[in-house]
Amino acid sequence: MEVGVVVFPGSNCDRDTYHVLREVLGYRAHYVWHEERSLDGLDAVVLPGGFSYGDYLRAGAIAAVSPVVRALRPFVDRGGAVLGVCNGFQVLLEAGLLPGAMLPNLGGEFRCEFVHVRVERVDTPFTCLLPPGAVLRLPIAHAEGRYYADAATRARLARHRQVVFRYCDPSGRVTEAAVPNGALDAIAGVASPDGAVVGLMPHPERASEEILGSTDGRRIFESLASWVRSRTAGAKGAVR
Amino acid sequence: MDPTAADAGTRRGGTRVRTVRVVVTLKPGVLDAPGQAIRRGLHALGHAEVEEVRAGRYFEIDVAEGGDLDHLVREMCEGFLANPLIEQYRYEVV
Prior knowledge:
By secondary structure, chain A is α/β, with parallel strands linked by helices.
C-alpha cells in the first residue's frame, strides 16, 4: 500500500503520521509537498493535523486552495481514499470535499485530551475492520472543532449516512458531557457519501503505540490497508 | 510598497487602484464563541454596559481598476474570504 502524507507549511503531525504508517505498521509512506499536482501511484492520501498556513483566514481555508488539495478531487474520482485528521479534516471541509464547517470550540478553549468516539459507519476505507458501534479512545487537540452544518446539510448527512464518528462516553453512549467542543449532533468525523473521503478531529496517529496510552488509532490505518488489499485483489485478481 | 498606495485613485505603475474594505462576521444564529469570550473580557475590565460583541475579520484589498468590481468582490468573498455556510460579509469601495 502506497500512502501519501501531505506536508503543508505549518503541518505538525506529518512526521507522526509518517512514523506510524512506515515504522509502526510497515506501509510504504511518502511525504507529498503541498505544491504537488500529481498523486499518481498512491492508494491513499492523509492530510495531517497542524496549523496549515498558520490557520490564517479560517483553519484549513488557505490549504484548501493549494495545488495538492485541488488534485484530491480527481484522485478520489480515480478510486483513491483520503483521510483528513484534525486540521486535515478542516481542510477537506473548506475545500468542499466533505460537507459542513468548523467553528471555534464552545467555551473558546483549546481542548487537548483523550476522548472516546463511537464508530457509526463501517463501510469506509478507514473503518472497514471495525464492528459497528466500536468505541475508540483517541486524543484530540484543537481550538476549532465545533462541527456545524445547516439544516439542509444536516439532512443530507443523514440521508447518505455520512457521520462516521460521534463523541461518546467510554461505554459508547452519546451524551452532551462527552462532546468536548459543542459539535452538532456530537459529530467527530464525517465521510463523503461513498465513504472514500473521511475526516475526523481526533488523532489516530497519536494513539497507535502502547507507550502513548492507546493503540486504537491503528485500527483506522489497518482498515485502510485491508481496504486497499481487497480492492487491488478485486480489480486485478492479485494480492499486492 | 508605498504605504499611501492604498488610497483611492492612486496610480501604481500607471494603474489606477481601488481599495475595497471587507468585513466578515458569523451569520446571525451561528454562536460566536470568540465574541462571547471578548464580551466576558470587557465585563472583567468593568464594562458592564457591553451587551453583545460579534467578532469578525477585516480586509483591505487593493484592486486594479477595470472590470466589474462588485462581481469580483462577491466572487472573492463567497469563494474564499467568507465561508458562506457560517459567515456573512459586507464591503465598501473606497
